[in-house]
Amino acid sequence: MNTDKVLVIERAKWLRGDKGGSVLLDADGHMCCLGFDAVARGLKPEQLLDVSAPGSVEDAPDSYIQVMLGEYACQRLCVIDALLHNDDSSLDEADRENLIAEDLKQLGWDRVEFV
Questions:
Q1: Is 39 exposed, middle or buried (0-12, 13-18, 19+ CB in 10 A)?
Q2: Can you give the pLDDT of all 115 residues of the chain as single tens digits?
Q3: Rg for the chain (alpha carbons), in Å?
Q4: How many beta carbons lie within 10 A of that of residue 108, not counting itself?
C-alpha cells in the first residue's frame, strides 16, 4: 500500500508567472501553488480568496500555521521561495514546476504532481 503524501497541482487552475500577481485563490477559481497546498490541508476556499500569503489566512488552524510559519512565527524560507518561484515570469514551466516541487516537499509532501 502506497502511503505517500502527494500534492496535486492542476495546471488549468494554477495561477502563476505572467498570468498576474498570485493570490492563494482568485475570484475565477485559480490558485497559486500554496493555494493548492492550503486546500489539500483542509482549508476552505473562502479563507483563501484574495489572500496573498499563507501567513495572512484568517481563522487558519494551528496545524496549518505551524507548517507555514515554523518556530519563528514568520513565513518559512521554503514558503517564500515557493511564492517567488510561482510568480517568476522569467522561469520556463519545467523549471518552475521543479523548483516549486522541491519547495513544497519541505512542507511535508512526498511528491508534488502537476497535471
A1: middle
A2: 678 999 999 999 999 986 656 799 999 999 999 999 999 999 999 999 999 999 899 999 999 988 888 776 677 899 999 999 999 999 999 999 999 999 999 999 999 999 9
A3: 13
A4: 11
